[in-house]
Specification:
single chain; alpha/beta; Alpha-Beta Plaits; Rossmann fold; 3 domains; eight-stranded mixed beta sheet; four-stranded antiparallel beta sheet; 20 helices
Length: 453
């Protein structure tokens, strides 16, 4: 396991804010309901008993010896006070509706250190009864001890009074404790998940782990973009942070291919839902804005959705073209409302997408598109478990692997990389998508212009 980054962990904890709140509410609410409605109030009464030797013995030496003897016997006296001999009489005298054994559980007797004094504490559900029992114990004890040890100087130092409030009224303490336990429990759960998390994160040393550079980092869409619902943010919100991230990705690709003739780019991912179509579409828009003649081809012949992003029909597309004559290519190319950008949708979902993409006709199509456009971006299917994008990657100038931040397992991403490398694909790098701006040190902040608002 890699060294834990404390700063990243506290940022990670922000994901659990809702869980913290829910846990605290449930814990505090539960303990409050229990303390107020279920827990029975217990009252506690106290008295003190002092034990000395005969008052008739007045010599100083005898008095000192008596005191020492009494101190040594306090433990014995404590056991006598809780014995059946004493408690049995108390039960009978007060006509208590409980056994001697049950009463003994609610009585505690403890000697005061270095004295011949006993503290007697009685707990009961009734305040007045607790005081009566404590005083009766002192009375019976004095009588029985005097008989056993021939003492005539056993006194009750303090009379037990009826307690005014329950001794177990710990509502405030219990609420605080419940809140602390809830916080610790959620934090512990979060730490365990963070510690065991084996997903790829934007802060990882990707080049060291996978031997691939980070081609770009794309932040999460903010609330305004999410409400808008249009995923073509580079066109709609050119000054948004996400748009700047896409433009940085475009620039990185151009620098990477400074000595190459970069014409074809495959955008794929390890798993579905990582944002490859979002990246490929906006990257195409970004190249078009840079005065490049761009074609975006939807090669996800299983769940392609480029037609949804550009809101164009998908009655015929790549799958139909590959079963037709390439001479009719122009009939399958659709214009968009974005200058310099055209699209070929995925078309009818075929039963054999891998065979179509591996066909000689598709290789001829890729070559023809290279000659016709400045940039051709292919939005491929996820690599995980499928051969579609692996086949395509061998025909491309560069391949981008889109990875949703903190979502893809490292082993899965490594498998994707290895699958592409086996066909000698030229992998430009990894694109981290949906990176939290709060957790990243890579972003400057941009703002929308008044006209965009």
């Amino acid at each position: 396991m890699e060294e834990i980054n404390i700063k990243e962990f506290f940022i990670y904890l922000k994901r659990y804010i809702a869980l913290f709140i829910i846990a605290i509410i449930l814990a505090v609410g539960g303990i409050a309901v229990y303390d107020i409605t279920i827990k029975k109030p217990i009252y506690q009464a106290k008295t003190m008993i002092v034990i000395a030797q005969s008052e008739n013995n007045s010599s100083a030496a005898s008095t000192l010896n008596d005191v020492n003897a009494s101190q040594k016997l306090t433990t014995t006296y404590s056991e006598i006070a809780k014995s059946e001999l004493v408690l049995g009489q108390v039960v009978d005298n007060l006509k208590l509706d409980e056994s001697v054994k049950e009463l003994g559980k609610n009585v505690s007797v403890s000697p005061v250190s270095d004295t011949s004094i006993l503290n007697v504490t009685v707990k009961d559900l009734d305040a007045e009864t607790s005081a009566k029992i404590a005083n009766e114990i002192a009375k019976v004890f004095a009588k029985e001890v005097s008989k056993i040890y021939k003492l005539d100087n056993v006194s009750q130092l303090s009379i037990a009074e009826t307690p005014q409030a329950p001794s177990n009224n710990t509502l405030t303490r219990d609420i605080i404790l419940a809140g602390v336990i809830a916080v610790v429990a959620v934090a512990g759960f979060a730490f365990l998940r963070f510690y065991l998390d084996d997903t790829v994160k934007h802060g990882d040393n990707v080049e060291k782990i996978f031997g691939l550079p980070v081609a770009g980092r794309i932040s999460k869409n903010d609330a305004k973009l999410k409400r808008d619902g249009d995923e073509l943010v580079v066109e709609r919100f050119p000054k948004a942070i996400v748009s700047e991230n896409i433009k940085s990705l475009r620039t990185n690709l151009q620098f990477t291919a400074v000595d190459k003739n970069l014409k074809t780019i495959l955008v794929t991912s390890t798993n579905a839902g990582e944002g490859k179509s979002f990246v490929s579409s906006n990257l195409a828009v970004s190249f078009a804005q840079a005065d490049k003649r761009v074609l975006l081809v939807d090669c996800d012949l299983r769940k392609g959705r480029i037609h949804k992003l550009f809101r164009i029909p998908n009655t015929s597309g790549l799958s139909n073209l590959l079963t037709d004559d390439l001479a009719y290519l122009d009939e399958y190319v659709r214009n968009t409302n974005i200058a310099n950008l055209q699209v070929i949708t995925c078309g009818t979902y075929p039963p054999n997408p891998s065979e179509l993409l591996a066909s000689k006709k598709n290789r001829r199509l890729v070559k023809e598109l290279r000659n016709k456009y400045d940039i051709v971006i292919f939005d491929g299917a996820p690599v995980g478990g499928l051969a579609d994008s692996v086949i395509l990657s061998s025909m491309m100038d560069e391949t981008l692997i889109v990875t949703k931040d903190a979502n893809t397992a490292k082993n899965d991403l490594m498998a994707t990389k290895d699958a592409l490398m086996k066909v000698d694909a030229k992998v430009a790098g990894i694109v981290f998508n949906m990176v939290s701006r709060n957790s990243s040190k890579y972003y400057n902040y941009y703002y929308y212009s008044e006209s965009e608002k």
